[in-house]
Amino acid sequence: MKPAKVSLSKLPIHFLLIGGGIAAITPFLWMISTSLKLPPEALKFPPSLLPHIPQWSNYLEAWREAPFARYFLNTIFVSGSVLVSVLFTSALAAFAFSWLEFKGREALFVGFLSMMMVPMVVYLVPAYIILYKLKWLDTYWALIIPWGANVFSIFLLRQHFKTIPRDLYDAAIIDGCSPFGFLWRVVLPLSKAVLVTVALFSLIGSWNSFMWPLVVTNSDKMRVIQVGLANFSQESGTRWTLLMAASTFCIAPLLLAFFFAQKRIISSFARSGLKG
Fold first, then answer.
1. Domain limits at 212?
2. pTM to 2 decimals?
3. What is the distance between the alpha carbons of residues 257 and 238, in angstroms, rounded to a whole number?
């Protein structure tokens, strides 16, 4: 009887989680359903959840309405470049803040963390002026370089690095290993789960970036996916089926990457014995 009582006591929590999951997934299901409908069917009241005859041609028509291929290529290139830069700079900075001893280390780290509280609107204009003087506006440099370092990623890696026993570092140094060699051969292999998490956050942030690319780019050839989708939304007007189709194939790669990365995070935590 005891197991039954325990399971019954958890039923409200399960119902709450199921309700939250349904509420979270409903907009996505409605977006996909609308993308497969005819325009009159999409505006019908009361609305229907499933399309009468799925209109897969809506995706092809939406793809042809705007240069989405260019938007995707720009986004993939920018996201990949930012990801590589963030992993490189975050690993080095986190290693310095967690393992190396130097004057003012803690104060400098607190200063880094305080930068997370500064909203983008505060430094948007000064950053724009700097990019203008560098002649980087409407170039890949403006989309990649300012985001090549991420304070939250440094914080996340630093907190994980500090959980690695200090004896490993001392033993590696005694054996003649350099600090960078210790980072590459010991610390990073033990930090796969956190690195995957940092990579996932970086990809999501780059893929969903809108305000910054909107400000620093002004041509179709440099637009990323979110700016291109917003521009398509203005041009398509009330063609909801095409807009939902475009939104679906714009967000689909990010959802797939998230699900694959989620499995990798779980397996990495299980292998390393870390607790969330």
1. 66-236
2. 0.83
3. 30
